[in-house]
Specification:
By secondary structure, this protein is mainly α. The chain is built from three helices and no strands. It has helices at 7-34, 41-58, 64-95. The termini are far apart. The chain crosses the membrane at residues 18-36, 42-60, 67-94.
Length: 99
Amino acid sequence: MKNPKGGENMAKLKARELVGPAAFYVGLLIAIGAAFIEPTGWLYVALGIIGVIIGLLNITARETGPFLLASIAFIVAALGMWTLINSAFGAALITHQKF
């Protein structure tokens, strides 16, 4: 017999609300573990899929604009830092590479 107050629906809603934070912690554990192993293509795929799951489940409609702005700012900053590091230390990094 179903609960007239919607107990089953509340349980499903609670379970769905826990998927986003759980995916975040799984991704965090994978990222920490990846610091101690040599990364492979599958590691990047797994982190990308978990990131999409986290983004879809944890970002509300109200947070979409600031989230997109922060994402663009992060990408621009990362590209700028890569250019700076490459131009400042590029020659030193090339001469110290091991093949």
